[in-house]
Amino acid sequence: MSANGAPPPADDARERICELCRLFYDKGWASGTGGGMSIKQGDTIYMAPSGVQKERIQPGEIFELDSQGAVVTGPSHLKLSQCAPLFMAAYTLRGAGAVLHSHSLNAMLATVLDESASEFRITCLEMIKGIKGHGYHDHLVVPIIENTAHECDLADDLTAAIKAYPKAAAVLVRRHGVYVWGDSWVQAKTQAECLDYLFEAAVRMKQLGIDWTKPPLVLGSDVAVMGGKKRKLENGEAAAAGVGVGVEQQVVSDRGMGG
Ligand SMILES: CSCCC(=O)C(=O)COP(=O)(O)O
Ligand SMILES: [Zn+2]
């Protein structure tokens, strides 16, 4: 919305998609024509074209779709993104205001930390708070679906994952990347940034031998190891961390973590 409450002109969405594609390219999320971006404004959906260098897209090359996903206008020399049915799933099932697809290396690596896992899990990191409906102590869960030869063939599995994980703001695609949505392009971008941080954190924590899926090490009912040092938990911290209420935690033994 503009300052006077009127809806912004459509050019805003077209220009915003171009701007975000450049930004995502700079982050390594859209290199080699990978990744994609879409914004919904009113009942109109805007999407980037397929198979082009995403960082060089011009506003006139953005496709316009109706709320059912039918193309209204678009450049005749370009094709609509292969991500279109996946973007539409987030608009239809989640009422999203924007959806993006990232080929971030962090997202891809997060899907191979355990190749048999059907979900990515992480807890007790500040950036979890950047994901709608989540707090520091929550277990953030992102479903992982298997990749297919063609992007558009992911749509059925992505739809099923969105339905099965009502709290999720994203779906990971094994050895490929991630789809992230939000109520607005600002929220989609923010959540994508927080998720990317969390994916990278998990990859690095694995390298350091730290379990990213469990709360910090707990030695007793009110003592934890944080940053390599023992620390007495403050009033309420132990309860919030789930001490004594059966929540799984990393336990220190003579052999160190996880023993
Ligand atoms: C080297 S990119 C392969 C296609 C892909 O995974 C992707 O995200 C881009 O799809 P689009 O149709 O939007 O170019
Ligand atoms: Zn892709």
Automatic annotation (TrEMBL):
<feature type="binding site">
    <location>
        <position position="83"/>
    </location>
    <ligand>
        <name>substrate</name>
    </ligand>
</feature>
<protein>
    <recommendedName>
        <fullName>Probable methylthioribulose-1-phosphate dehydratase</fullName>
        <ecNumber>4.2.1.109</ecNumber>
    </recommendedName>
</protein>
<dbReference type="InterPro" id="IPR017714">
    <property type="entry name" value="MethylthioRu-1-P_deHdtase_MtnB"/>
</dbReference>
<feature type="binding site">
    <location>
        <position position="101"/>
    </location>
    <ligand>
        <name>Zn(2+)</name>
    </ligand>
</feature>
<keyword id="KW-0028">Amino-acid biosynthesis</keyword>
<feature type="binding site">
    <location>
        <position position="103"/>
    </location>
    <ligand>
        <name>Zn(2+)</name>
    </ligand>
</feature>
<dbReference type="GO" id="GO:0008270">
    <property type="term" value="F:zinc ion binding"/>
</dbReference>
<keyword id="KW-0456">Lyase</keyword>
<comment type="pathway">
    <text>Amino-acid biosynthesis; L-methionine biosynthesis via salvage pathway; L-methionine from S-methyl-5-thio-alpha-D-ribose 1-phosphate: step 2/6.</text>
</comment>
<dbReference type="InterPro" id="IPR036409">
    <property type="entry name" value="Aldolase_II/adducin_N_sf"/>
</dbReference>
<dbReference type="GO" id="GO:0019509">
    <property type="term" value="P:L-methionine salvage from methylthioadenosine"/>
</dbReference>
<keyword id="KW-0479">Metal-binding</keyword>
<feature type="binding site">
    <location>
        <position position="176"/>
    </location>
    <ligand>
        <name>Zn(2+)</name>
    </ligand>
</feature>
<dbReference type="InterPro" id="IPR001303">
    <property type="entry name" value="Aldolase_II/adducin_N"/>
</dbReference>
<dbReference type="GO" id="GO:0046570">
    <property type="term" value="F:methylthioribulose 1-phosphate dehydratase activity"/>
</dbReference>
<dbReference type="Pfam" id="PF00596">
    <property type="entry name" value="Aldolase_II"/>
</dbReference>
<comment type="similarity">
    <text>Belongs to the aldolase class II family. MtnB subfamily.</text>
</comment>
<dbReference type="InterPro" id="IPR027514">
    <property type="entry name" value="Salvage_MtnB_euk"/>
</dbReference>
<comment type="function">
    <text>Catalyzes the dehydration of methylthioribulose-1-phosphate (MTRu-1-P) into 2,3-diketo-5-methylthiopentyl-1-phosphate (DK-MTP-1-P).</text>
</comment>
<dbReference type="GO" id="GO:0005737">
    <property type="term" value="C:cytoplasm"/>
</dbReference>
<keyword id="KW-0486">Methionine biosynthesis</keyword>
<feature type="domain" description="Class II aldolase/adducin N-terminal">
    <location>
        <begin position="15"/>
        <end position="203"/>
    </location>
</feature>
<feature type="active site" description="Proton donor/acceptor">
    <location>
        <position position="126"/>
    </location>
</feature>
<keyword id="KW-0963">Cytoplasm</keyword>
<keyword id="KW-0862">Zinc</keyword>
